[in-house]
Amino acid sequence: MKANCWYGKKDVQVVDVSEPEILNNRDAVIKITSTAICGSDLHLYNGFVPTMEKGDILGHEFMGEVVEVGSEVHNLKAGDRVVASFPISCGKCFFCQRELFSLCENSNPNAWMAQQLFGHSPAGIYGYTHMLGGFAGGQAEYARVPFADVGTVKIPDGLSDEQVLFLSDIFPTGYMAAENCNIQPGDTIAVWGCGPVGQFAMKSAYLLGAERVIGIDRVDYRLQIARERAGAEVLNYEECDVYESLMEMTGGLGPDACIDAVGMEAHVPGIIGAYHRVKQSLMLETDRPHAFRQAIMACRKGGTVSVPGVYGGFDDKIPLGSLMNKGLTVKTGQTHVQHYFAPLLERIQNGDIDPSFVITHRLPLEDAPSGYEMFLNKEDDCLKVVLKP
Amino acid sequence: MEIPRDLAIERRQRSGAQFSEPVERRGDWNDGSLTDVARSAWDQQQLGVLIDGNEKTVARGLGWFSIGLGLAEVLAPRTLERFLGIKHHGFLLRIMGLREIASGVGILTGRRPSGWLWARAGGDVIDIAALGMALNSDTAKPANIGLACAAVAGLTVLDIRRAQELSRNNDAALSARTIEVRNSIQINRSPAAVYKFWRNFQNLPRFMSNVESVDTLSDNRSHWCVRGPAGKRIEWDAEITEEEENRLIAWHSLVGAQVENYGSVRFETAPGGRGTYLKVHLQYSPPAGIFGARVAKLFGREPQQQIHEDLHHLKQIMETGEIITTKGQPAGRARGTSWKYDQAVRRQVDSRSEYQTSAA
After folding, report:
1. Taking CA atoms, what residue in B is nearest to A89?
2. Are residues A384 and A273 in the same domain?
3. H helices of A121-241, where?
4. Is A55 close to B321, i.e. CB distance below 8 A?
5. How does DSSP assign A237-262, residue by residue?
6. What is the pLDDT of residues A218-252, one digit of tens each?
7. Claim to verify: residue A254 and residue A353 sit in the same structural domain
8. What is the chain A residue with the closest CA to B347?
9. Residue-wise DSSP of A327-371
């Protein structure tokens, strides 16, 4: 089968590989009908996350048709149309039983590696480093889904792939980011990053009752989508001082909650940006936590900073003094996707939201490498690439 | 030191019957020669004193001295030049200073300072050679250079001695040390369920990656087969020394075991419906000599890590019914699974399939 594999920094190739098989009793193999490139895949593409190996199959946002199930999978059968969740979760451990699926204890065969870096290991993730399991990803014609009885949601007839594909990651991720803000009537939510997760965070903030949503980015077409499709007010951080503007918009209070949907590769203007790039390239620092810093400084006293953006390591100059003295709450984590499957599928069925609004490009799987390049460089107003095997 | 033969045997027997006695005080356990007893006792004592006390302190002192000297060479080469009466060697002095700093940092931060001490001794020799060459300089101050040579030579002797001692101790530590491992894991099942699984010793190879098989001989005796170095199989008989249903199993190897070992596992009820806190305590003593050093390395390079992974596999079996694997999945390279990153997993999966084959 064809699969999109990682071969190094800015080097992905679609190559022929063997087809996946059932390896554990709770596995399923699915024939992929739609898959997508995630913003977090770009961190791998840029070579920022360690423990990738040449030939790893990428992709953690995918859906398709079940072709085979293991002996212990009783709720799925061949022919079912399903979306897979990007975290792999056993459903039985302390964390899964509390619906904290992305913290599953039993799905990362290389847990010891993540433990060295993080103290504890999160769940395994498809196509996202050997530290997080080394699982073959879903930018391919077929994929193996471990713990398939927990990690899939069946899609009813009448919904298109594009409407439900993003249940795999970015819709629940944006939604959980907004839910973590504990939104109260009248709240203003500021969202750093108007990429796909940022767009879903903005939409979700309104769904959860926010009065006002402000999107922050520097790319005009993304700000335009935020304004027109997510209904947000927007700030271009290259044209204004973000802190000053937010204070002006909120009478000096600051946003009630701030969402960092940017993560480790924030664009930082000027001399500080150069400083971070040098440090990051020398491995003195793993992330550029610029958006996170701004979010802390701008957030209303007693407010919440919610972080769906991916960070990987050890960061400098986090304004802990501000965090402490302003009594802020920080909420973060990989998304507990399975927890959101049913309620968000219902939202899609109700017509509350049509997640396909973020799609700008549809490419055959063979064109995945050009999709990565386009998404990274924001060419052709690219916001989200869907690949069709 | 003379230890009467009877006493040695008595000590061995006594220790065999009492689980809690530290292994290092139990004398020999292999062929029972008196010299072995004495040497092992000496090693244990010396190790404690030398590695943890005096020896490390000296090594640390040398480390800091290296950094100080190196900084002086890097930051004030002119002053040093004036002292030695040489000219235009500032660059060389800086290089020597950097080497000095590197070996100092190595000694202070290295897990095995002996290697860095050897490096330091080598560097000392180069320094002396350089000082000798400096004597040819027109402006040289032979008295000062002589002084510097004497200082460096003194340090070299010290370095070599310390490096020798530390190297010897590293070998001794591998072959004669009793390795002790404690680890704990939460399992989302009742203590009774986990106890039942563990008490059926045939289950142990399913999650203990080095264990090939455990055969039950009687209710409290079992025969263990473990993969040793170079494909060599290590076997022993073990006996349960203490048992409380659903709470505790403790065992020890019987006299004559090649690798003497003790173990206990406790099944504690975790609070708030968290299932079981499983607490494992293992002690094992690799035999002296090269074979023993290999045993220590195989089990003991990171024994803590090894046991932790084994227990994580037990947790997976208890909670999900199996150990998740990536072996056999597709990838855009010759092997689906990555040798580099999945080694621990592969070892586990391979050992299970080998076990199943041999059992069939």
Report:
1. B320
2. no
3. 161-164, 170-179, 196-207, 220-228
4. no
5. TTTS-HHHHHHHHTTTS--SEEEE--
6. 999 999 999 999 999 999 999 999 999 999 999 99
7. no
8. A109
9. T-EEEE-S--HHHHHHHHHHHHHHTS--GGGG--EEEEGGGHHHH
> Which domain-ending residue is among A332, A355, A378?
A332
Q: Beta-carbon neighbour count of residue B212 at 10 Å? A: 19
d(CA A337, CA A102): 7
Question: Which CATH superfamily hosts domain B178-319?
Answer: START domain (3.30.530.20)
- Assign A176 to helix, strand or coil: helix
Token pair, residue A185, equals 């009537």
Amino acid at B133: M
> Average pLDDT of B104-130?
70
Task: Output A65 or B39, whichever has higher pLDDT.
Answer: A65
Residues with Cβ within 8 Å of A185's Cβ and at least 6 positions away in sequence, in order, are A209, A211
Per DSSP bridges, beta strands B276-285 and B179-187 are antiparallel
Question: For residue A353, what is the domain's CATH number?
Answer: 3.90.180.10
Spell out which residues of chain B touch residue A23, defining contact as CB-CB under 8 Å: 325-329
- Band the pLDDT of B62: cuts 50, 70, 90: confident
Would you call B319 and A106 a contact, using CB atoms and an 8 Å cutoff?
Answer: yes
Q: Which residues contact A229 (CB under 8 A, 6 or more apart)?
A: A199, A203, A357, A358
Report the pLDDT averaged over residues A282-304: 85
Q: pLDDT band for position B178 (50/70/90)? A: confident
Residue B6: predicted pLDDT: 45
Minimal CA separation from B336 to chain A, in Å = 8
pLDDT of residue A176: 98
> Which of A2, A11, A14, A23 to probe by mutation at the B interface, max B CB count within 10 Å?
A23
Domain that holds residue A314: 174-332
Q: What is the pLDDT of residue A324?
A: 97
Rounded Cα–Cα distance for residues B310 and B203 (Å): 12
d(CA A40, CA A185): 32
Residue B94's alpha-carbon distances to B73, B114, B123, B126, in angstroms, are 5, 25, 14, 14
Q: pLDDT per residue over A158-171, tens digit each?
A: 999 999 999 999 99
B201: nearest Cα among B186, B181, B184, B219: B219
Burial of B65 (0-12, 13-18, 19+ CB in 10 A): middle
A interface test, pick of B302, B319, B337, B350 with most A CB neighbours within 10 Å: B319
Contact residues on chain A for B329, CB-CB shorter than 8 A: 20-21, 23, 135-136, 144
Count residue pairs from A and B with Cβ separation < 8 A.
115
pLDDT of residue B171: 53
Closest-CA residue of chain B to A21: B329
How many structural domains is chain A composed of?
2
Residues of A in contact with B275 (CB under 8 A): 94
Q: Are strands A257-260 and A188-192 parallel, antiparallel or unpaired?
A: parallel
Q: Is-contact A29 A15, C-beta < 8 A?
A: no
B337 in A contact zone (CB under 8 Å):
yes
Q: Which residues of A touch B319 (CB under 8 A)?
A: 90, 92-93, 105-106
